[in-house]
Specification:
With about 300 residues, the protein is mainly alpha-helical. The protein has twelve helices and three strands, in the order αβαααβαααβααααα. α3 packs antiparallel against α5. The protein starts with a helix and ends with a helix. This is Olfactory receptor.
């Protein structure tokens, strides 16, 4: 039982998924199922890439990093949300809230950077295959991975520390299912318009610049694919690229609508739906997309599932 004015005055209150909605319990149960599928799918994908020597390439190493980010991303949100709902305790401490803001921003930005590096990897593999092992060496691949994680962490640290320094007034109720920057800024006593403009500028750099680089890479890839004489090579290249483009669309689409759509702060319900897709559904869909569209991964997935079913 919570006691003391200090706890009541400093803790944030997460109002959860779509406050006031009927049958919220069913929705939370579905989210928990999605979380289980996401954990299983991404963990299996990481294990397969680690265990099979045929997948010890730059492309699959970067894919394993994407699955690792997705695991951390969804795990930074769903467990707390589900625990709050079933326990009836909707509070989160300022430290916990700050940590959630930091990790969600860091992982979101890291995923954007990683998807850009993955597009460049596919460009070099398809357009410059003879130079691929030289340009995309193991060291370069590791630098791409480290750069994604570090870049996301540094950008998030700046935003988190600055956003949380604003004084807050009134009840600390967040109309959200996790601690999100824009929801916290609404509680501030001071004018945060200048900072919000900075968020838009940062979002432009983090979202539009990578999208431009990704589209440029794939434009060059498709031009190269059209010149291929081998139908099998063309289909393989298109399958690999289409899976990555689908993931890019799922990741960048909601983020663009949330952070760069005019008046987005006035549509909290739509924002929650977009955040649900971006932070909960996408981590579940990513391994499924790569498994269905990639022959090597799909074949290994079916082999593992076949062995599991036979053992049962």
């Amino acid at each position: 039982m919570e006691t003391g004015n200090e706890t009541l005055s400093t803790d944030f209150i997460l109002l959860g998924l779509f406050p006031g909605m009927r049958h919220t319990g069913l929705l939370v149960s579905i989210v928990l199922l999605v979380y289980t599928i996401a954990i299983t799918g991404n963990t299996t994908l990481i294990f397969l890439i680690w265990a099979d020597p045929r997948l010890h390439t730059s492309m699959y190493f970067l894919l394993s990093q994407l699955s690792l980010i997705d695991l951390a991303f969804i795990s930074s949100i769903v467990p707390k949300m589900v625990t709050n709902f079933f326990s009836g305790r909707r509070r989160i401490s300022p430290t916990g809230c700050g940590a959630q803001v930091f990790f969600t921003l860091a992982l979101g930005i890291a995923e954007c950077l990683l998807l850009t590096f993955m597009a460049y990897d596919r460009y070099v593999a398809i357009c410059h295959p003879l130079k691929y092992s030289i340009i995309i060496s193991r060291q370069v691949t590791h630098l791409m991975s480290v750069g994604s994680w570090v870049g996301g962490a540094l950008a998030s640290l700046v935003h988190t520390s600055y956003a949380l320094h604003f004084p807050l007034c009134g009840p600390r109720e967040l109309h959200h299912f996790f601690c999100e920057v824009k929801a916290i800024l609404k509680l501030s006593c001071k004018d945060t318009s200048a900072y919000e403009k900075g968020v838009v500028m940062t979002s432009t750099a983090v979202v539009l610049l990578p999208i431009g680089l990704i589209l440029t890479s794939y434009t060059l890839i498709f031009l190269q694919v059209l010149q291929m004489n081998s139908p099998e090579g063309r289909n393989k290249a298109l399958a690999t690229c289409s899976s990555h483009l689908t993931v890019v669309t799922f990741d960048y689409g909601p983020a663009t609508l949330i952070y760069m759509r005019p008046g987005s702060s006035h549509t909290p319900i739509l924002n929650q739906a977009l955040f649900m897709f971006d932070t909960i559904l996408t981590p579940m869909l990513n391994p499924l997309i790569y498994s269905l569209r990639n022959r090597e991964v799909g074949g290994l997935m079916r082999k593992v599932l076949g062995r599991y079913l036979i053992s049962k």
